[in-house]
TrEMBL record:
It comes from Haloferax mucosum ATCC BAA-1512. GO terms for cellular component: molybdopterin adenylyltransferase complex. Gene3D superfamilies: 3.10.20.30. This is Molybdopterin converting factor small subunit. GO terms for biological process: Mo-molybdopterin cofactor biosynthetic process.
Length: 86
């Protein structure tokens, strides 16, 4: 499956897309662990005190996801901070 990263998260990882491999019965949280294993610089931007930061949004196939949701081969996952503008 593939993660799409946005804004400062893409900058920290040095790329906008990251493919990860997880077990067949994986969750979005497992896929996030694989992402952070490949790009540890993201951890401090994604987690606060061991919990997913309130300001981080996680999507699975374009829909809001939780870390407990199932993740399947071929899913497109996205991770981004809030975006604002004028």
């Amino acid at each position: 499956m593939e993660w799409k990263l946005f804004a400062d998260l893409a900058e920290a990882a040095g790329t906008r897309t990251v493919s990860v491999t997880v077990e067949d019965d994986a969750t979005v949280g497992d896929a996030l662990d694989a992402l952070l294993g490949a790009h540890p610089a993201l951890e401090s931007r994604v987690f606060t005190d061991g919990e997913l930061s309130d300001h981080i949004n996680v999507l699975r196939n374009g829909e809001t996801a939780t870390l407990e949701d199932d993740a399947e081969d071929g899913d497109e996952l996205a991770l981004f901070p809030p975006v604002s503008g004028g």
